[in-house]
Amino acid sequence: MRKLPAVSSVRVSLNEGLTIVDLKPGNAMTLAELRQIVKNNGFATKEAQVIARGAASSGQSFVVSGTSERLMLQSPPQASGDDWRLAVRAPDQR
Asked: What are the domain boundaries of the chain?
């Protein structure tokens, strides 16, 4: 992940099952792309805590600026300056 142009830094805790990925401002990487990279490396993804710019589309979704990716939320987004803090649902495990 560190080699991806959009990635600023990556921190991993195998004990906690947690990966923290900081993306560069203005990047166009989607959460779906990040989840696929994690999956391709043999790990499952669950819910995600995201800080993004964009707009709440409804109480259950959020559209990210720059990518137009629609994220399905666990709870309403919280404004934080120009950004939003989001709890994103885990992907369907089909």
From this structure: 7-88
